[in-house]
Amino acid sequence: MDMYRALQIANYIVSVAFRIGRPITNLHLQKILYYLQAKELVFEGIPLFNDTIEKWKLGPVVPQVYHEYKEYGSQPIEKIATEIIFDDKTFDIKPVEFNENDIEDGTKENITPDIISLLNEDPFKLVDLTHEHDPWKKDKERIENGEKGLKYSNEEIYDFFTEFPEKLYEVLGGS
User: N- to C-terminal Cα distance for the chain?
Assistant: First the structure.
């Protein structure tokens, strides 16, 4: 399986939400990305995407994805973001429209049921749940004091959900 950019996966999540007629906010999108990354780390042993997840007051956030969708504030996302790709060899910047075919069929088959399951969860319930997870809790005071740039490591996500797999199942069902 290829490793994806977080915005590719985020755009796929938004496309699934549109397809099933479920509104999705940036907050909800962020929690779905976190749980998908956790499941991939636990069951596949590799990250789904290579972008960093940070510890924010409302739980896990992928900053790049957040900034792409922040114009919607707390309102539902209305349009799939155009990704801006920087080529560090040619120094070109090019816009890339989301293409669902850039995500392998096996990956889509693997994550789509989880996306639908997570879309059915209240986003603030997901925030509360992530606040109970040790990787966020251990930095709670620093986060609440406004410290920026606190990152989740893939290892701590893997270790936490390997030790407490029920924390995945409570939001993903038996998948």
Answer: 19
* The token pair that represents 142 in the structure block: 């620093």
Q: Shortest CA distance to 28 belongs to which of 55, 81, 65, 82?
A: 65
Provide the CB-side half-sphere exposure for 84 (13 A, CA). Answer: 7
Q: What amino acid is encoded at 30 in this protein?
A: Q
Per the CB < 8 A criterion, the answer to whether 126 and 28 are in contact is yes
User: Amino acid letter at 66?
Assistant: Y
Q: Write the CB contacts of 110 (distance below 8 Å, at least 6 apart in sequence).
A: none
- Residue 49: half-sphere exposure toward Cβ, Cα within 13 Å: 23
Q: Residue 138 contacts by C-beta under 8 Å, 6 or more apart in sequence? A: none
Residue 115, token pair as written in the block: 């996306």
CA 19/CA 86 separation, integer angstroms: 30
Note the pLDDT tens digit of each residue in 88-147: 888 888 888 899 999 999 999 999 999 999 999 999 999 999 999 999 999 999 999 999
| Rounded-to-10 torsion of CA 41, 74, 149, 8 | 40
Which tokens in the block code for residue 92? 């070109």
